[in-house]
Amino acid sequence: MANKIKDAYEAKGRNDVEVNAMDFGSLESVVDEADIILLAPQIGWAKEQVEEDYPDKKTILLTIKEFGSMDGDMIIDRIEQEQ
After folding, report:
1. Fewer beta carbons within 10 angstroms: which end of the chain, N or C?
2. What is the pLDDT of residues 5-16, one digit of tens each?
């Protein structure tokens, strides 16, 4: 998914965006470097806690359709709608 999002940004001429994927347990070690936290639907149960723990970060819970599509453009559209 991260590669699809990065490729979609690059296709739009945006080489300034860094996209990384990691397991939920690693969030704390990298969150300071993040502007946006995307959560897969499987860990939707954690959204409220993530928002409480990191109130200065935008947290987006992807839908099953968005996540399953592996469509970077669809995810970018969602990110832009949420900002």
Report:
1. C
2. 999 999 999 999
